[in-house]
Amino acid sequence: MTKQAAEKLVERISSLDLSEQIRQIMLAVAEGNAGNITLPGIRSWYRNNAQAVIEYARTHPTSPLGDYWQSDRPMTATAMPLEPPCDPGSSEAVGAADRDTSPEFGSKFREDLIKLCMWRRDVRRFDTAPVPRETIDQLLDIAQLSPSVGNSQPWRWVEVTSRPARSAVQASFRLCNASALKAYAGDQARAYATLKLEGLEQAPVQFAVFCDHSAVQGHGLGRATMPETLDYSVVSAISVFWLAARAFGLGVGWVSILERDDLRRALDVPSPWRLIAYLCVGWPLQHHTNPELERLGWQSRTDIGRRLLVR
Fold first, then answer.
1. Position 265 confidence tier, pLDDT thresholds 50, 70, 90
2. C-alpha to C-alpha distance for 207 and 141, rounded to whole angstroms
3. Can you say how many angstroms the Cα of residue 282 is from the centroid of all Cα atoms in its chain?
4. Backbone phi, then psi, for 283, in 5-degree steps?
5. Rounded to whole angstroms, how far apart are CA atoms 136 and 118?
6. What is the mean pLDDT of the segment spanning 19-34?
7. Distance of alpha carbon 267 from alpha carbon 253, whole angstroms
8. Nearest to 155 by CA among 198, 199, 205, 218
9. I need a labelling partner for 211 at 20 to 30 A (CA). Which of 41, 101, 123, 264 fits?
10. What local confidence, expressed as pLDDT, does residue 34 receive?
11. What would the pLDDT profile of 220-256 be if each residue is shown by its tens digit?
12. Which of 55-64, 173-182, 300-309 shows the lowest per-residue confidence on average (mean pLDDT)?
């Protein structure tokens, strides 16, 4: 189908009932090839009728769109399955998100987002009850939406499940924590010794999150002068995962008192991978809006990070 033919088709069916329009479009696509949906006329029609197309797919399971609806792929007005790829050099490739279907985040959503941030905590005390696999997969999918320098996506997730691997992590923590304690003296040392700084024995799900310093994706864009942005990209993904987990009622604890090289060897991952975080994930036993270190008198919040310098 040519561009002109697609435009004529859309013009010809414009006066028909919407369900018939959808049927005609699907027939045209089926008779040609999937590339038909990349033609401007059909693409514009699809965007203008996104919600109706989604409803049609849901109620017509035997149609091409119905097959898509029943698959594992998302089908929403803002994640349209038939959205054609743009030519990287075209003007459409810049800001490809469709303004017509972009969601509006109202005041209620903003209020809930603030609550989510307030109730996100570094959790150390977990219920040992298992977390559904589909929930973990959803969280990892959400984290995959995180920004990264040069679109490099350098995060590498390693789920730690075996007893030997978890024992190695716990041994590393005990060694590093004992060393950290020596840096304090007097009342501060005694206070440090009482802190619970991990949930390694209770958390049902545990991840070692690495940054792949050998990543070629992104072609080095954005990191020639600031190579550390590769690590920062992984931190961004962890933050997204953390907030998403809280939205699902889960807690996340970031364990940093570990020896990087010991864990890399214990988990048998490639040498260019650099450990960024070890995450404990599970159902929290407690919920708080203030950090545990503040509640225990170790360090209260301050406003120093909120101060704005103007130059």
1. very high
2. 15
3. 17
4. -85, 120
5. 22
6. 65
7. 19
8. 218
9. 123
10. 40
11. 999 999 999 999 999 999 999 999 999 999 999 999 9
12. 55-64
Q: What is the C-alpha separation between 194 and 202, in angstroms, rounded?
A: 18
Q: Which of 80, 87, 101 is nearest to 40 (CA)?
A: 87
Homologous superfamily of domain range 109-306: NADH Oxidase (3.40.109.10)
Q: How does residue 180 score in pLDDT terms, banded at 50, 70 and 90?
A: very high
Residue type, 26: M
Q: What integer is the mean pLDDT of 101-115?
A: 90
pLDDT of residue 249: 97
Q: Which string of DSSP letters, residue by residue, matches the chain?
A: --HHHHHHHHHHHTTS-HHHHHHHHHHHHHHS-GGGGGSHHHHHHHHHTHHHHHHHHHH-TTSHHHHHHHSSS--BTTB-TT-PPPPTTSGGGTT-S-GGG-----HHHHHHHHHHHHH--B---EE-----HHHHHHHHHHHTT---GGG---EEEEE--SHHHHHHHHHHHHHHHHHHHTT--HHHHHHHHH-----TTT-SEEEEEEEETT--TTTTTT-SS-TTHHHHHHHHHHHHHHHHHHHTT-EEEEE--S-HHHHHHHTT--TTEEEEEEEEEEEES---SS-HHHHTTS----SGGG-----
The pLDDT, as a whole number, for residue 204 is: 98
The β-bridge partners of 208 are 158, 278
Furthest CA-CA distance within the chain? 84
Span 28-33, average pLDDT: 58
Reading the block at residue 99, the tokens are 């303004």
Report the relative pairing of strands 273-284 and 205-212 from DSSP bridges.
antiparallel
Q: In this predicted model, which residue has the larger pLDDT, 108 or 90?
A: 108
CA atoms within 13 A on the CB side of 233: 28
**CB-CB neighbours of 192 under 10 Å:** 17
Sorted by where each begins, the domain ranges of the chain are: 3-101, 109-306
